[in-house]
Amino acid sequence: MSGAVLVAVAAAIGNLLQGWDNATIAGAVLYIKREFKLESEPTIEGLIVAMSLIGATCITTCSGGISDWLGRRPMLIISSVLYFLSGLVMIWSPNVYILLLARLLDGFGVGLAVTLVPVYISETAPPEIRGLLNTLPQFTGSIGMFLSYCMVFGMSLMTLPNWRLMLGVLSIPSLIYFALTVFFLPESPRWLVSKGRMTEAKKVLQRLRGRQDVAGEMALLVEGLGVGGETSIEEYIIGPANEDIEDPDMSADKDRIKLYGPEEGLSWVARPVTRQSTLGIVSRHESIANQSAFGLVDPLVTLFGSVHEKLPATGSMRSMLFPHFGSMFSVGGNQARNEEWDEESVVREGEDYQSDGAVGDSDDNLQSPLISRQTTSVEKDMVPTAHGSLTSLRHGSLMQANAGEPVGSMGIGGGWQLAWKWSEKEGQDGKKEGGFKRIYLHQAGVPGSRHGSLVSLPGADTPADSEYVQAAALVSQPALYSKELMKQHPVGPAMVHPAETAKGPRWNDLFEPGVKHALIVGVGIQILQQFSGINGVLYYTPQILEQAGVGVLLSNMGISSSSASLLISGITTLLMLPSIAVAMRLMDIAGRRSLLLTTIPILIISLLILVIGSVVKMGNVVHAAISTVSVVLYFCFFVMGFGPIPNILCAEIFPTRVRGICIAICALTFWISDIIVTYSLPILLKSVGLAGVFGMYAIVCVISWVFVFLKVPETKGMPLEVITEFFSVGAKQVAAAKNN
Fold first, then answer.
1. Which of 186, 395, 412, 696 is spaced 20 to 30 A from 405 at the CA atom?
2. Which residues contact 682 (CB under 8 A, 6 or more apart)?
3. Residue 263 neighbours by CB under 8 Å, 6+ apart
4. What's the burial of 351, exposed, middle or buried (CB within 10 Å: 0-12/13-18/19+)?
5. pLDDT per residue over 513-537, tens digit each?
6. Is a pLDDT exceeding 60 seen at residue 557?
7. What does the pLDDT read at residue 332?
8. pLDDT band at 385 (very low <50, low <70, confident <90, very high)
9. How far apart are CA 487 and CA 415, in angstroms?
């Protein structure tokens, strides 16, 4: 776990450089326009500041596709190089045109960092602390701004402040960032899996998680390669293997799945429930079809919300099967492994079934292989296919159906379990045929009682020898069980090698219902964030603090107006840091959606107070005090919610194969909106005044709250692959409901 934290901190330095640059140019431009005599040329002055935005916007248009091709790490390395080169050119800058070129290079670096750092952290962080780690870019960005303001303020007190030195100092931390990206940061394991580089991905995961046994997460990453596909939500009752739970709604014995725990002699059985569910994820999913097509709340939001219902704490089998961290199959990698069995599997698979993966990167070289052949009830009838290994995904512990069909199961974080089952049936010609089903299991509802209905007496005390839990399951076709194999009607669990599933992004994937739905959420929240007023409040802050008497106090201390504005901005930035720290703590506890719904109303109230203060005449002292408190509240609650969460969500809700392209679309929306808001602000101030501008921002914040309430789901603690699966199944159900 510590490995993932250190990697996230190192990657977030890219955002520290962005914050550093933003603050530095705000101070340096005061001296640049004096040297180049730009007082009469506001367009050039504006371009010096805006060129970074223009560069970021341009690079973002292609950053997603290139990162899907080259990888996340190379793009971060390029970002650090661009930061370094821009710093050197800014130190040189003999004229304003060279300075504009340097600012453009700087914008390229900023654009790559802002776009890809959240993606990189999301793809390397464990689900339980992904929100905390993905808030680091906001935190380090604010630290960079504060340190830069302190530096520029100190240099502004000199007799002849050197703006070239102010801007060129950026090269020093960028060298540190370059060293970290080259020598410390690994490539994203999800990107490596998407390219079929399984051995490298396993080594990276072992380093990030601090344990050798990462088969569960490796299998999850492979499952994340698919886009779209048919997914259903089913319900299971999980109980001890020796319990004979009688219920007319239970399916036949042949569909039962046996679960083996880490302790010898500890096992359970998962039994599918065929009746209509009345609890948890399944019931909410089934209600989607009955909702009006014109319903206000997106059913997908309700579907996600059912995952996060609080469950009773217990130390019994329930907590062992669905713990908060890890799973019963992976507890920090402390379980003993049968390494001899693993080595046997490697030899056996290597002899009989040749891998189609890249030379030198085959999974046959893995000590604890992700892919290993298993014996099935129809093994004697199997015929090797041309698609690679005949395989079953497996972990140290096995789940095995009562008829002998093999099923691998493992914990994937956030209380989710990953399992597979091989189902067989006789065709019309009498031959056995079947296929794999991938299952994501998650506890749903509360414990029931054996002595009543399976869903009755919630919370009742249940004897330790007769307890069971209700679990919802996302059931779908595995990523490795290809459509081509299905057409061949293979006998046995034939699956393709992971390298064969490694396909690049296709534009058609963007039109999958789940991806389109996620794009609406991502693009929408990025637009609303930029139009919620942060730029206007930042613009107005020095004026407000001046009215509060801070400027007079600093003037009496012998500090010039230019230095005073820099110090005020630094103090404002410093006030953000404790709030971001609180957000980091709450991001994986309260959740993204809850933080947005809680903090946006404070933004609305703060903006309305600023409107009232601008319209109603009151004493200077009272006006300054009220305005100062409103601005501080706005900043603090913005960086707790609307500041970091849009980027966090956008890095979570897209499938691995198209994540780079989709995040680039969202980032491009962010930069275009930023440019529009920045350049429309002076025009709006002249046309509608300060009160009108803040009133418009307040209206946007109201719209933002409604949008979050209706459209933005809660993603805390969920594996990325499960999130995208929910988007897929939810979007298709909504579409089906509309068609009906």
1. 412
2. none
3. none
4. exposed
5. 899 999 999 999 999 999 998 888 8
6. yes
7. 34
8. very low
9. 35
* Residue 342 β-bridge partners: none
> Residue 128 CB: number of other CB atoms within 10 A?
18
Q: What is the pTM (predicted TM-score) of this model?
A: 0.81
Strands 469-476, 267-273: pairing is unpaired
Q: Which of 444, 325, 329, 419 is nearest to 717 (CA)?
A: 325
CB within 8 Å of 509: residues ≥ 6 apart: 227, 228, 515, 655, 657, 658
pLDDT tens profile 248-264 = 454 555 566 665 544 45
pLDDT tens sequence across 105-127: 999 999 999 999 999 999 999 99
Which residues, at least 6 apart from 126, have a Cβ–Cβ distance to it below 8 Å? Answer: 1, 4, 209, 413
Question: Where residue 242 falls among pLDDT bands split at 50, 70, 90?
Answer: low
Whether the CA torsion 649, 303, 519, 521 is positive or negative: it is negative
Give how far Cα 272 sits from Cα of 83, 267, 284, 400, 475, Å.
Answer: 56, 17, 17, 15, 11
**Burial class, 101, CB count within 10 angstroms (exposed 0-12 / middle 13-18 / buried 19+):** middle
- Residue 366 · residue 394 · CB < 8 Å: no
Length of the chain: 740
Residue keyed to tokens 């990325």: 720
Joined tokens for residue 91: 């130190």
For residues 93-99, average pLDDT: 93
What tens digit of pLDDT does each residue of 302-340 get? Answer: 888 877 764 444 333 344 444 332 333 333 333 333 333
Q: Which of 369-378, 588-597, 681-690 has the lowest mean pLDDT?
A: 369-378
Instruction: Locate 27 and state its tokens.
Output: 């101070």
Q: Which of 32, 42, 19, 11 is nearest to 99 (CA)?
A: 32
pLDDT at 464 over 70: no
Task: Give how far Cα 365 sits from Cα of 197, 200, 216, 343, 345, Å.
Answer: 12, 11, 18, 10, 11
Residue 404 scores a pLDDT above 60: no
Q: 112, 125 in Cβ contact below 8 A? A: no
In terms of DSSP bridges, do strands 469-476 and 371-372 run parallel, antiparallel, or are they unpaired?
unpaired
State which H helix or E strand residue 174 sits in: helix 171-183
HSE-up of residue 500 (Cα within 13 Å, Cβ side): 16
Q: Are 164 and 24 in contact (CB under 8 A)?
A: no
* 9 pLDDT more than 90: yes
**Residue bearing tokens 């319903």:** 295
- Please report the sign of the dihedral spanned by the C-alpha atoms of residue 139, residue 143, residue 145, residue 146: positive
CA gap 412, 472 in Å, rounded: 15
Question: What interhelical angle do 136-156 and 96-124 show, nearest 10?
Answer: 150
Angle formed at CA 117 by CA 112 and CA 121, multiple of 5 degrees? 160
- Whether 270 contacts 251, CB under 8 Å: no
Residue 617 DSSP code: -
Q: Which position has the token pair 């953000």?
A: 576
Kindly state the tokens that stand for 76.
């971060």
